[in-house]
Amino acid sequence: MPVKTRKAIAGLYAITDPHWMPEAVFLDKAEAALRGGARILQYRDKGDPWQEHARRRRQAGALRELCTQYGALFVVNDDPDLVRAVQAPALHVGAEDAPLAELRQAFGRDLCIGVSCYASLDKAREAVKAGADYVAFGAFFASPSKPQAPRVDLQVLRKARAELNIPLVAIGGITEDNGGALIAAGADALAVISGVFASEQVEAAARRFAALFDHPRNIPKE
Questions:
Q1: For position 91, which CATH number holds?
Q2: Residue 221 included in any domain
Q3: Given the residues 146, 158, 161, 217, the one annotated as active site
Q4: Residue 199 a catalytic site member
Q5: For the chain, how many structural domains are there in total?
Q6: What is the pLDDT of residues 100-127, one digit of tens each?
């Protein structure tokens, strides 16, 4: 994939959620996050892709246009068909989802592909070998979106940073207070859902997360 796209995996990585973003305010909240400094915006919607195809395509297409306007990377979560429909530049999948080799054959090298590896360095190594453009680890903290997700130790992120030469994304319960520790441990991007979109002031919340990359806080002592 183009080097400049891989370099785009940095900073605040905002992920949409229909619970915090009902359709009436969906685009307003998404644009507020982009105004606040989100550099990556992922469309994550677990609705039925067949029954809700029109809504999902409409929302994804609108987000792609917004991301183009703000110079941010637009990512579709776990839906290659939607990627094709709206010509999204990036796709995020789970480690057990469609094999990367098949995705590469279908989309070529121009599509940015990220893979969730949870707490597994082995999964991350396999993803890198298969051609992933970035890998994500988490949940690092208690997550409102996935309360049952196993917690990941910061040492996993440190080891990944020392070994892997692709961008690393941290996810799971990230706040303005704990995000700095993840950046210090090696995260290139912080994936945030409720920390941004549950806020009454989405733009201000996004701006505070984005500022962590300039002035990290809570840097862990060795």
A1: 3.20.20.70
A2: no
A3: 146
A4: no
A5: 1
A6: 889 999 999 999 999 999 999 999 999 9
Residue 218 lies in a domain: no
State CA 56 to chain mean position distance.
Answer: 18
User: Which of 47-51, 87-91, 100-104, 189-193 comes out lowest in average pLDDT?
Assistant: 47-51
Query: Does residue 129 carry a catalytic annotation?
Result: no
Mean pLDDT, range 21-44, rounded to an integer: 97
**113 within 8 A of 93, measured Cβ to Cβ:** yes
**Whole-number Å distance between alpha carbons of 216 and 178:** 9
The answer to whether 63 and 88 are in contact (CB under 8 A) is no
User: Taking 80 as the threshold, does the pLDDT of residue 33 lie above it?
Assistant: yes
Among candidate residues 134, 133, 136, 100, the one with its CA nearest the CA of residue 120: 136
The band of 218, judged by pLDDT with boundaries at 50, 70 and 90, is: very low
Q: Is 57 annotated in the active site?
A: no
- The answer to whether position 50 is within a domain reads yes
Average pLDDT (157-161) is 97
Residue 115 lies in a domain: yes
Q: How far is CA 204 from CA 22, 38, 182, 211, in A?
A: 20, 11, 21, 11
Residue 129 Ramachandran class (φ > 0 left, ψ -120 to 50 alpha, else beta): alpha
